[in-house]
């Protein structure tokens, strides 16, 4: 039972970090002409209909990577603190 609770807690921590990270995605970003051309070229190359969908997917991927990095750092720090507390 304790293992299940720990796993659910870890999942909740990751989801919380992901939600905090996703809130920073600039949804209504105004692109310059050069940025617009670049996003249109890349979306055409990847066969994506709307460049804004590609923009959102790229940002979402970045935010998932950031949340995973923060999660890994928090878990390593937690284990380190637990080891220090058990040796004291």
Give me the Rg, rounded: 19 Å
Low-confidence stretches: none
Number of helices: 3
Tell me how many strands there are: 0
Euclidean distance between termini CA atoms: 28 Å
Number of self-contained structural domains: 1
Instruction: Report strand %.
Output: under 5%
Can you summarize the main beta sheet? none
Share of helical residues: over 70%
Order of helices and strands: HHH
Given helix and strand content, the structural type is mainly alpha
Summarize model confidence as the mean pLDDT: 89
Anisotropy-based shape = elongated
What does this molecule look like?
The chain is mostly helical and 88 residues long. The protein has one domain (2-87). Helices cover 81% and strands 0% of the residues. The radius of gyration is 19 Å and the shape is elongated.
List keywords for this structure.
3 helices; mainly alpha; about 90 residues; about 0% strand; elongated
Provide the fold topology.
Blueprint: H1 2-22, H2 33-45, H3 51-87
Helix pairs in contact: 1-3, 2-3
Quick description:
The chain has 88 residues and is mainly alpha-helical. The protein contains three helices and no strands.
């Amino acid at each position: 039972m304790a293992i299940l609770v720990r796993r659910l807690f870890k999942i909740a921590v990751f989801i919380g970090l992901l939600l905090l990270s996703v809130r920073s995605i600039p949804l209504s970003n105004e692109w310059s002409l050069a940025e617009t051309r670049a996003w249109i070229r890349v979306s055409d190359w990847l066969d994506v209909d709307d460049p804004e969908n590609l923009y959102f997917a790229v940002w979402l991927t970045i935010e998932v990577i950031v949340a995973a990095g923060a999660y890994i750092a928090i878990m390593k720090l937690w284990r380190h603190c637990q080891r220090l507390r058990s040796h004291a």
